[in-house]
Each structure stands twice: as C-alpha cells, then as structure tokens.
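pinging the channel bc i need a second pair of eyes. not urgent but kinda urgent?? the chain im working w is below, pasted from the shared doc
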Amino acid sequence: MDDFTTTTIYFDGQFWSALVVKQEDGCTRTGRYVFGAEPANPQLLYWMIHEYADIPLFPSEPVSVPVKKMSTERSRGALGRSLGTYRAAQQAYLSERKQERRECVRADRREEWRLKLEKRKQKRRH
C-alpha cells in the first residue's frame, strides 16, 4: 500500500480547523488542529513548519470531510453579476477621476495664463 499524508483545512461552522490523515503500512491515523479564526498564508506557513509535526495522531478508520459544492450554473451567474457590478462601479469611478483631472488641468492652465498676463502688464508698466 502507498503511504500518504493528507491535510484538509476547513471551516466547521465555528472555527477553522485542519484534519490530518496519515497512512503508513496500512494503518490510518488522524489528528485535528483548531486554528480559531481564518488563518492567513503566513500563519499557515508557520504552522506547517513549526507545529505540524507536533499534532497528536490517533488510530482510526479512513475519514473523509464532506465538502459543499455550489452548482456551476449558480456560481457562474452570481460571479457574472458581481463582476458586472464591480466593472460598472470601477468604470464610474474612473470616469469621475478623469473628469476631476481634466478640471484640475484646466484650472492650472487658466492660472498659468493669468500669471503670464500679469507678468506682461508688469513689464509694460516699467
């Protein structure tokens, strides 16, 4: 038989947990580690390097964690709507910023022109 170790990180309804299933020489051992809040990538790396080997493993029958999967049609529809909303909001924001920049550039040009005219007037007076 093949020896393997499988780690599954999942949300059990209250906490984020890791289920470790290790099979050696036909004997299956399992262990569970509770993270609490959702672990970030640096936390997962630290856990894998420093704490993974210390998880107590107990003899058990093979275990599988039930996984809920969204139907592809439902997920595509929701994703498409959310992307469409995001793109519309992004487009509105970018067009607003573009208008603000144009107004700012126009104001700067007017101010430069006004200063240039004043400078000309000052030269003529002296």
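so The two ends are 101 Å apart (CA to CA). and Helices lie at 41-51, 72-125. — does that match what u expected or am i reading it wrong
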